[in-house]
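Input (structure):
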């Protein structure tokens, strides 16, 4: 199931290994939960993504950190649920989604 979230993207990187494994990661920042007395300030999270996602982000690099819309799906990895980004785009002024460039993913 694919969900769309709004997140404050602070950076992204990608990797390519000699064995053919490729991928990327997107780092976001969000305010701590106000009802959690064990957190203050902001929390940073990293999400996996396909290698090509960085190409979508290049157009927004001069504006980073910035708010973005992320199409994500939950995946299981090593017994833990992880977030995997499928597409990114700058939200438009009305808040509705703009068409995103097609990406390939390793859906299972």
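Output (sequence):
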């Amino acid at each position: 199931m694919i969900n769309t979230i709004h997140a404050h993207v602070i950076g992204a990187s990608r990797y390519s290994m000699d064995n053919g494994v490729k991928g990327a990661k997107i780092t976001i920042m969000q305010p701590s939960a106000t009802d959690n007395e064990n957190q203050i300030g902001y929390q940073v999270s990293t999400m996996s993504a396909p290698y090509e996602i960085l190409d979508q982000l290049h157009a927004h690099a001069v504006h980073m950190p910035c708010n973005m819309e992320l199409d994500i799906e939950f995946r299981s990895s090593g017994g833990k649920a992880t977030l995997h980004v499928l597409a990114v785009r700058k939200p438009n002024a009305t808040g509705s989604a703009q068409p995103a460039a097609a990406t390939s993913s390793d859906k299972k």
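Notes: The CA atoms of residues 2 and 73 lie 5 Å apart. The first helix runs from residue 53 to 57.
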